[in-house]
């Protein structure tokens, strides 16, 4: 019984995190990727990283919603959040700064460690791909 409750909780978390990253990625793209590139460069990052992060958030968000490669995508999202916290948001403090990033980091780590198998397309993948 507790396993099913855990799986339902992980499913909800996976879908909500996926939607959150998907919307953030779409916002970067829809707001004008050139503006995102300029923002990244203004923070000292190479402009091409804006494209990588944007597409990682869009494609990774969709993958989480569908339950594809949950562990891999979650590790990528955790890396993005660590960078955002320490390189971009830390000076803003917790409230109004990095609180959302910290929650998304914690959620990404949980999904990377436990995955989410309920209503996940990973279940139909062959062999070792099922655990990604």
UniProtKB/TrEMBL annotation:
Compartments reported by the entry: Cell membrane
Keyword set includes Iron: no
Keyword tags: Cell membrane, Membrane, Transmembrane, Transmembrane helix
Transmembrane feature ranges: 7-25, 45-65, 72-90, 102-125
Highest rank taxon of the organism: Bacteria
Annotated InterPro entries: DoxX, DoxX-like_oxidoreductase
Membrane topology of this protein: Multi-pass membrane protein
A Pfam short name: DoxX
Keyword Transmembrane in annotation: yes
Family recorded in the similarity comment: Belongs to the DoxX family.
Protein's UniProt name: DoxX family protein
Lineage of origin: Bacteria, Bacillati, Bacillota, Bacilli, Bacillales
């Amino acid at each position: 019984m507790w396993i099913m409750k855990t799986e339902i909780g992980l499913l909800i978390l996976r879908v909500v995190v996926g939607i959150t990253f998907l919307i953030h990625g779409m916002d970067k793209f829809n707001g004008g990727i050139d503006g995102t590139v300029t923002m990244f460069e203004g923070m000292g990052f190479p402009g091409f990283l804006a494209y990588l992060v944007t597409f990682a958030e869009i494609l990774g968000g969709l993958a989480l919603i569908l339950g594809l490669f949950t562990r891999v995508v979650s590790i990528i999202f955790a890396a993005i959040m660590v960078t955002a916290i320490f390189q971009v948001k830390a000076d803003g403090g917790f409230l109004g700064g990095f609180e959302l990033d910290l929650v998304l980091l914690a959620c990404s780590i949980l999904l990377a460690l436990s995955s989410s198998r309920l209503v996940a397309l990973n279940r139909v993948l062959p062999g070792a791909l099922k655990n990604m």
